[in-house]
Known about the structure:
This protein has 334 residues and is mostly helical. It folds into two domains: 4-75, Glutaredoxin, CATH 3.40.30.10; 86-109 and 157-328, no CATH class. It is 57% helix and 8% strand. It has 14 helices and five strands. It has helices at 13-25, 39-45, 65-75, 86-112, 117-129, 138-151, 163-181, 194-208, 210-219, 221-229, 242-257, 261-273, 294-309, 314-322; strands spanning 4-8, 29-33, 53-56, 278-283, 286-291. A three-stranded mixed beta sheet has the order 2-1-3, covered by helices on one side. Helix 5 packs across helix 6 (138-151) and helix 11 runs parallel beside helix 14 (314-322).
Amino acid sequence: MSDYRLFGAETSPYSMKVRAFLKYKGVDFEWIGRSSEKEQEFQSHAKAPTVPLLVSSARAPNQDSTDILAAVESDHAEPSCVPDDPACAVLALLLEDYGDEWLNKIMFRERWGQKPDRDEAAERTMEQLFDGNLPRAKKKTRDQIAKRMRDRLALIGIERKNEKALKTSFERFVPLLNAHLENNLFIFGGRPSVADFSIAAQLSQMLMDPTPGAFLRDKAPFVTAWCELMDAPKASDGFKSLEELSPTLLPLFTEELSNTYLPWAKETLEADIAKQDRVSVKLEGKPFEQVTQRYTATSFKSVQKAVRRLSDNESLTSFLKSAGADVYFQNPNK
């Protein structure tokens, strides 16, 4: 029997994030595609109706991709996904959260907010749910899936007035990442970190969809190749130092994260603490408003703590200050 059983879907970036990580670790696992046929078994372990779901004999069932990666890393230290440079290790956590919380918003908008992407995604989702045994009313079922997913857009902040900011963010981030990957096999050097698994999972989903897929292939050949590599990555060398990475890593933070994800995540945390139903923040001088997401607030709070624990690390503090990101990690109690 396999050490792990992973319930997931190839249309789910978080499922693919975990699957790629298990492959990297070289652990024995069984992949169970989420479908109507497997629903009863899934429900017997799950606390929420979402994938991924990792089941093992050593730990309780887990449906949080970030927690899953941390737990598997703890149980299987090699090959490591934690950069040797402590500053890089913290920046990897920060980028993982960017991928999970902000880039996912972009992926969802690209997939479900426009045609023909929405119809093709609904078709794939239908095939997955019915495990290839499609219903007679295929078009009706496909349209129902598309409508259900389109109706979810506002719940994760994809409101019409926010769409331009998300599109601008995507089209800025991808060339910056491409420039970085032109000289680095993975984000932090010769082996993947949690940042790679998170970000590649979101971008790999976009490669499936016509509109963002065409953009990625045209504008970002190194990102495209990296996404393919990240399906089953292998370490080729060690991690690099922050000093070596900074020339192309710093612009990712300066030009993108400090202008979008970081101010949004910080305001989301503050809105959650204040028990506000909606969060409002100015991104690059323009308003961005959405429903307050509790999970985003919780995950960013964890990232803040990781940064603050390394507050005496000169290279990290200098990097964040140069990126204009230090203000998002200042301790309000000091």
